[in-house]
Design brief:
Layout (H helix, E strand, L loop, with lengths): L21 E4 L6 H18 L6 E4 L10 H13 L4 E4 L3 H11 L4 H6 L2 H7 L11 H14 L2 H8 L5 E3 L2 E3 L15 H6 L2 H4 L8 E4 L8 E2 L3 E3 L4 H4 L1 E8 L2 E8 L7
Bound molecules: manganese (II) ion (MN).
EC number: 3.1.-.-
Pfam family, one: Metallophos
Protein name: Metallophosphoesterase family protein
């Protein structure tokens, strides 16, 4: 009779993607040499998984800056969109915001250069100014970038998403502000937030899958999954595979040594 009172608690169900097979790729930062092998690993995994529906391939942003092949990374993602193996979805990172801001406001170039913008300019064949304070040179560089950017790339940067929700998961670039509903998060928080999000106690409305703050190891936690492993410093690019059985980490290493 008492047995009913002490029934063991049902094991909590694994978080769900609504039956969908989903892959999310961390911050690529111009490292096509790590993206290519990771895409291969994901494609093999997807083939072996025999999903009922076309798998989703989500990128969490920060395609450009720091690594040597920013333009090449965007070109590769556009290629994946043209193919139909995956439903490709792309989030906006703070580095893409910086690129767009530089096109509007050339004087921002000096700031952008401080966090890796010069490598993006170079990847589009634009010579970065020799002196970071040379206003005239930044105006010329901004005009040169506008000219060098293929229309498809500009459209790509302008149409990036801020949040993608799939089942029990929400994918964003940086994180979310604790205590604010997902539907009311600000763009600034979604692409820039760090400590207030990373140290927040408890859970959010959904499990947040994010990049932006590099960690040596991917972080698979009850409240969030961090997949930025700082490829430009570690040489390791990380993705997470999600379905109704839970998360699994997939990684690839850059072929060339990581830039210092
Ligand atoms: Mn970022």
């Amino acid at each position: 009779m008492f047995r009913n009172l002490f029934k063991p608690k049902a094991k909590p169900a694994a978080a769900s993607t609504g039956g969908r097979l989903v892959y999310a790729v961390g911050d690529v930062h111009g490292h096509l040499d790590a993206l290519d092998p990771l895409i291969l690993t994901i494609a093999e995994d997807a083939l072996a998984s025999q999903p009922a529906e076309r798998p989703m391939l989500i990128f969490v942003g920060d395609y450009v800056d720091r690594g040597p092949a920013s333009a090449g990374v965007v070109e590769r993602i556009l290629g994946l969109m043209r193919e139909t193996a995956f439903e490709v979805r792309t989030l906006k990172g703070n580095h893409e915001e910086a690129l767009l801001q530089f096109l509007e406001e050339p004087s921002f170039g000096a700031t952008w250069a401080d966090f890796g913008g010069n490598t993006t300019l170079a990847s589009y064949g634009v010579q970065p100014p020799a002196q970071r304070t040379d206003t005239e040179a930044w105006i010329k560089a901004s005009e040169a970038l506008a000219e060098a950017l293929p229309a498809e790339h500009l459209e790509f940067y302008r149409n990036l998403e801020l949040m993608i929700e799939v089942g029990d998961y929400a994918f964003v670039h940086a994180g979310v502000r604790p205590g604010v509903p997902l539907s009311r998060q600000s763009e600034k928080d979604l692409i820039w937030i760090r400590q207030e999000f990373l140290t927040a106690p408890g859970r959010f409305e959904k499990i947040i899958v994010h990049g932006h703050t590099p960690m040596e190891e991917p972080q698979v936690l009850p409240a969030r999954i961090g997949i930025d492993t700082g490829v430009y410093a570690t040489g390791v690019l990380t993705a997470v595979r999600l379905d109704d059985t839970g998360p699994r980490i997939l990684q690839a290493r850059a072929r060339r040594a990581a830039a210092a």
